[in-house]
Design brief:
By secondary structure, this protein is mainly β. Helices cover 12% and strands 54% of the residues. Strands 1-2-3-4-5-6-7-8-9-10 form a 10-stranded antiparallel β-sheet.
């Protein structure tokens, strides 16, 4: 990659990284303000360019049983997409755990958080489909703004959920890396 030392500090680059077990790096990562990771594998491919004020890029992230404070049961999934300032689009958002499988496309934007074409499967059978739009600025929440203040005014919440079988919350929690 390349980084300009003079303003506007233009850059372009590519990163390809793979770690078969992040556990041995726990202390190193926690000292660098990365949320504590206890174990699991990570593969990252990233390509981007821009300046301090405008940037864009594409990414592919594969997690295999990634254990952290937020995912004590391990998180396994594939995430691919693109980003630009205050907009992240996931063309692939795919979580797997045991017999469960959740896929969707997702958009994070200042105007809200959206999931489309969501499908939840258990043992290769469709359990539910749906989509949602939540008028919440996720970037404000990530920056520490309370949720009630990060809600986007004058935008409606939208939810469509079609269940084919009973939903088991325990199985859905496991997909997101939670323990029983």
């Amino acid at each position: 990659g390349a980084i300009a030392l003079e303003s506007p500090h233009a850059y372009s680059g590519t990163i390809k990284a793979q770690v078969s077990d992040v556990g041995p790096y726990r202390e190193f990562l926690s000292q660098r303000a990365v949320f504590p990771l206890s174990g699991g594998a990570v593969r990252l491919d990233w390509e981007g360019d821009g300046t301090r004020s405008a940037n864009s890029g594409a990414f592919s992230l594969v997690l295999d049983d990634l254990v952290s404070a937020l995912t004590p049961g391990g998180l396994t999934g594939t995430f691919e997409g693109t980003y630009s300032p205050e907009n992240v689009y996931f063309s692939v958002f795919d979580l797997k755990r045991e017999q469960g499988h959740f896929t969707t496309t997702a958009t994070l934007a200042r105007s809200g958080l959206g999931l489309k074409n969501a499908v939840l499967r258990e043992k290769n059978q469709i359990v539910a489909t749906g989509e949602i739009f939540l008028p919440l600025n996720p970037f404000a929440v990530f920056a520490g703004t309370p949720v009630r203040e990060a809600m986007v005014p004058d935008k409606a919440l939208y939810l469509r959920l079609e269940t084919k079988q009973p939903l088991r919350l325990r199985d859905m929690a496991r997909l997101s890396g939670q323990k029983d």
